[in-house]
Design goal:
single chain; alpha+beta; two-stranded antiparallel sheet; 2 helices; globular
């Protein structure tokens, strides 16, 4: 898959396709509106993680994982109980070793602390 910058209009079209297809199926299955976006505040944790990713010469990409919290709060997550059972996104740097497929970096911790919408 190629990577390219897109316009906000193109983003809107792609997101609407997701809402019309994937989100509809997910929402029907869980019988409530599914998460549509995840927003990460540009806080110290995010800046630190991005700085580590950009500085590490072994990093060849970023992998995004769809995640979901359990039905109970564990280890302080999620901070808001209304987020229980909602889908979210976490990301981790990836790196290649010796021509193999990219694997999740063990030197940069994954980040999962976004604001879920709706």
């Amino acid at each position: 898959m190629s990577t390219k910058a897109i316009t906000l209009s193109e983003l809107s079209t792609l997101h609407q396709t997701y809402l019309n297809n994937k989100a509809t199926i997910l929402s029907a299955e869980i019988k409530k509106r599914e998460t549509e976006t995840v927003w990460f505040e540009m806080n110290a944790d995010l800046r630190n993680t991005l700085t580590k990713i950009l500085a590490d010469t072994k990093v060849d990409g970023i992998r995004f994982y769809f995640t979901a919290y359990k039905d109970v709060v564990e280890n302080g997550f999620p901070q808001d109980v209304k987020d229980l059972s909602k889908m979210s996104i976490a990301f981790v740097a990836t790196e290649k070793a010796g021509g193999a497929a990219s694997t999740d970096s063990t030197s940069i911790s994954p980040l999962n602390h976004g604001v879920l919408n709706p």
